[in-house]
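Chain particulars:
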Amino acid sequence: MGDNELRKRLCQAKKTERIIFAATSELKQALETVAKEQCISVSALITQAVVNELAKNKDLLEKVGE
């Protein structure tokens, strides 16, 4: 599976699950700054970063979502 196919599979489904994590105020501020510069939400920035990391490990994800 190519990177683009993986990204589509992970991002195009209805978002029904939540992942909650703690962050320092510095991390939150950094995320807000980068998101604002890219004209996207912090949530979208986090999702983008996660999907990029997952794409690097796509061989581990062959059966995810099947």
